[in-house]
Amino acid sequence: MATPHVMEQSRAVPVDVDTAFTRTLPMPLPTLFRRWYGPITPVKAVLDQTGEWDSAGLTRTVVQVGGGTMREKLTVVDPPNVFGYTLSDVTGPLSPLVDHIDGEWRFTPVGTGTLVTWRWTVHPKSTAAGLALPVFARIWRGFARQSLEQLSDELLR
Predict the structure, then answer these.
(1) Residue-range domain boundaries for the chain
(2) Cα–Cα dist 153/97, whole Å
(3) Whose CA, among 1, 9, 23, 149, lies 20 to 30 Å from 105?
(4) pLDDT for position 2
(5) Is the separation of the CB atoms in 45 and 67 below 8 Å?
(6) How confident is the model at residue 151 (pLDDT cuts 50, 70, 90)?
(7) How large is the average pLDDT for residues 107-123?
(8) pLDDT of res. 1
């Protein structure tokens, strides 16, 4: 079994932890992930969402520009500290590399605001695919930095 690769990015946002959590969890993915970053495409749509996206066990399909898809399942919802999810059934450009991804958003008080940390644990499809993950991680961190900047803008609206 190939070794998972952990990547994360954080950003301080000038809102309290409760606000950061309660506004991030249900935020429409096409709003948060609407810009390209190198080969990482924006989210085009979310389909087949079950429920209000507020409790573990709910699922939806994430569709990226270009046609790639992922099945997302909420695995942890612990307000206002953390929510986690698994991305599986990956199609499109990531499919040769990724078996599944365990994602997590953490919200920690810092100063007068919140430190938001987004973490991905990527489980590669094979040992060979795992060799490409350090390069992908550098690109993903740029994408995450850009997405956290977008999140900060949205939380301040």
Answers:
(1) 5-155
(2) 32
(3) 1
(4) 85
(5) no
(6) very high
(7) 97
(8) 65
Q: For the residues of 47-103, what is the DSSP string, one character each?
A: ES--TTS-STT-EEEEEETTS-EEEEEEEEEETTTEEEEEEES--STTTTTEEEEEE
Residue with tokens 């270009």: 66
pTM, entire model: 0.95
Contact in structure between 53 and 26 (CB atoms under 8 Å): yes
Q: What 8-state DSSP symbol labels residue 20? A: H
Q: Is residue 101 within 8 Å of residue 86, measured between CB atoms?
A: yes
**Distance between alpha carbon 77 and the CA centroid of its chain, in Å?**
14
Helices (H) and strands (E) in the chain, counts: 3, 7
Question: Could you read off the pLDDT of 57-95 as tens digits, one per residue?
Answer: 999 999 999 989 999 999 999 999 999 999 999 999 889
CATH homologous superfamily for the domain 5-155: START domain (3.30.530.20)
56-63 long-range Cβ contacts below 8 angstroms, 24+ apart: 62/29, 62/87
Name the residue among 30, 74, 78, 84 with its Cα closest to residue 52.
74
CB atoms within 10 A of CB 78: 12
Q: What mean pLDDT do residues 107-132 have?
A: 96
